[in-house]
Amino acid sequence: MMRNAWMSFVLGGALVLGAGNARAQGEPGAGGPPPMGGPMELMGFEGMHGGKAVKGAPFSATSNSETTQTLQDGTVIHRTSTGSLSRDSEGRSRREITFNGVGPLAAEGGAHTMVSISDPVAGAHLMLNPEKKVAHKMTFHAHGGADANGDKADAFHQKMEAREQADIASGALKTESLGTQMMNGVNAQGTRTTRTIAAGKIGNDKAIQVVSERWYSPDLQMVVKSTRSDPRFGTTTFSLTNIQKAEPAAALFTVPSNYTVKEGDMGGGRRGGHRHGGPPPAGDVPPAPVSNN
Asked: How far is the first Cα of the chain from the last one, in angstroms, to the nearest whole number?
């Protein structure tokens, strides 16, 4: 049960990010849960947050994430994830993440791999489970089509930016430029943000400072390195290495023929499943394949 709940969290987080309907930044409100940035970075999603499809900037790279947390009794918890990120010239992207020591899966031992494919051309997002040979497919066409989804993402981003400006004005958030430097073979622009949670805001007797550094590559239009230090949850780092600015293999963005596809819909449409490449169950309609064109 715990494993299923954790997988749902992983799947849900990846689908939201891939759909462009979330932005893994910000802080919780008083008494709220930890920010999404930490776990999303740990699972390798930091580099490719949701947003509009990036065309004409193909690449492939290796991703590395780790979180270190020291408990009050001196116990150190160290969690890691490794993976690969790819994007083709049409904006299709793929994330393959192998993580361990994360959530209920840690109790089962060994490493666990998840694969996420986002295809803006076909208007679909898939999460592949290599252990079960299952692909969960979500389509983004309900309530007005792809343009409507893009409008919602833009509206959400504007809301987050307005909140950020309000925090800067109140002194709760400080942003500073770290300049530009070559990082892992690409030029990157650095930004440091320091968010202060005032004493008493969440029951804290002293102010808490959360410091984040992000290095963004204009050429790749994505984050290539980040560090987040939060005294409540530890320090999380993310980095891309072995960056290759070349067209990835088209097969990376398709569902393997031996996988079962379970189809859904962002608007709450039906869910079903069939063996990819084989006949669907009677009365079922096979999902549209992920385009390679």
From this structure: 40
Partnered with residue 81 across adjacent β-strands are: 65, 99
Q: Residue 101 is encoded by which pair of tokens?
A: 């020591």
- The model's pLDDT over 70-106, given as tens digits with 9 standing for 90+, comes to 998 999 999 888 899 999 999 999 999 887 655 444 4
Region of 219 (left: φ > 0; alpha: ψ -120 to 50; beta: rest) is alpha
CB atoms within 10 A of CB 60: 20
* 59-70 confidence digits (pLDDT tens): 999 999 999 999
Distance CA 217, CA 97 (A): 21
Run of H or E including 148: helix 146-170
Looking at beta carbons, which pairs linking 277-286 to residues 24 or more positions away fall under 8 Å? Answer: none
Asked whether 189 and 180 are in contact (CB, 8 A), the reply is yes
Stated pTM of the model? 0.71
